[in-house]
Amino acid sequence: MRVTTVAAVGMAGLALVAVAGCGAGRTNGGGSGGGLVVGTTDKIFSIDPAGSYDAGSSMVQAQIYQQVLNYAPGNATPQPDAARQCSFTAPAVYTCTLRAGLRFANGDPLTAASVKYSFDRVQRIKDPNGPVSLLSNLDHTDAPDATTVAFTLKHADDQTFAQILATPAGQIVDEKVYPADKVLDDDAVVRAKGYSGPYSISSYDKNKLVQYQANSGYQGILGKPRTATVAEKYYASSNNLKLEVQNGNIDVAYRSLTPTDLDSLGKDDKVTVHKGPGGELRYIVFNLNTMPGDTPEQKLAVRKAVASSIDRDALSTQVYRGLYSPAYSFVPQGYPGAIEPYKDLYGAAPDKAAAAKFLTDAGVRTPVQINLQYNPDHYGASGSEEYAAIKSQLEATGLFTVNLQSTEWVTYNKERTKDAYPVYQLGWFPDYPDADDYLLPLVGPDSFPQNHFQDPGIDAQLITEETEPDRNKRLALIQQLQRDLADKFVPIVPLLSGRSVAVARKDVQGVDSTLDLADKFRFGVLSR
Questions:
Q1: Whole-prediction pTM value?
Q2: Taking a C-beta distance cutoff of 8 angstroms, is the pair 485, 184 a contact?
Q3: CA angle 157, 162, 166 (to 5 degrees)
Q4: pLDDT tens for each residue of 261-272
């Protein structure tokens, strides 16, 4: 019997972050006393863990929900949070013992039954906007007593399951509050307080202002928040967010500031620019049912032709001023196992001749009409410039005509799962620091893109790499997966990968500790 015990962890946001101190306009941001005010251009989709899987929603969820395992700031190994300890008690059974006396913010007891209910619920609801794809290897969850939770896996020796428990799929909810078969409305979540994280929500005006109060009953790895009250304010544009930071009306601006904004703020002697490890991936998705092409072979040829026509270097230097790097794989460079098969197969620079050959060989008539949808608010204000450049690049080949359209995130996230967009923009922010997190959620069962891609061979390869205990063999399997996806399927075209950046006022502390590979921005580590 193999027994593996979990130790400590840490994670943080891989996005553009700017932090500034208090000023005369502070009260307009919703803060008071010694609290902090956070600003963002991101949007909340749903704060019920079963109903969302996006950065804006996760920002709120990271503050209020506890997990069996979580990441401590600055550490990339999952550590017990609601649990006291976790280990494999059989090759396909991962068992956790909970801390004693846990309670939700409303006073209800948090027991092993609560944990079982939370995982069962995500799997039962199976919301297309939720994190169910992360639980593809979970067969069932048992709660044999009040403090013991046993996760039975479909495949033994899962090298990633401890990390899965620290993702949005592992957030614990109160079984007395959250319905078993549907997503709970945000206002009901706020009223019922069926969560047990470091903070509780004291006031909620969706996508306008959320106010947090430290949860004195929280027991877990993140500890007592350094700042008792935090207000999060939502902005329509990055320009407004930048002005609020510069004027001192907010303490923190998190997601998203443009490269121009960051250049300007970097010259401000009242702030310090902090840079952390990166993991954001920006990419184009193809809906395999509705994209151009009369046959699967023609659709594949179109995808390959697009992959051969994009100038990633131009996007990196001209749109993002080097803040993002060209991406030629699902897995960003720097992660163990990352390779660049899109560069090998489709070139580091646009290749019109190769693109034309793909289309001609498959009998695709040109120019190909592409309806390309992008989002102007969720992935940063520069997305408009990025997709205008992509349209220009594709049309410059003479092989494509691009109809470019945009939709704001809350609507966009619903419509993309309903086959409304044939070709569209998405971005990925990692849940755990492993190459598997760029593969399983993007191309596995119930994948996040919801683009109708599924292949039994790829599913089998995913299982093999996830359950391979030999590190070198596992990395070789991860590399082969990247090659096969890029060569045989091309369900997405990766564009850019980025690192985390924070601009902090001199008196704000804790920023560096929350800029780590875990991609969770924790209010509790920030202070003045």
A1: 0.84
A2: no
A3: 155
A4: 888 888 888 887
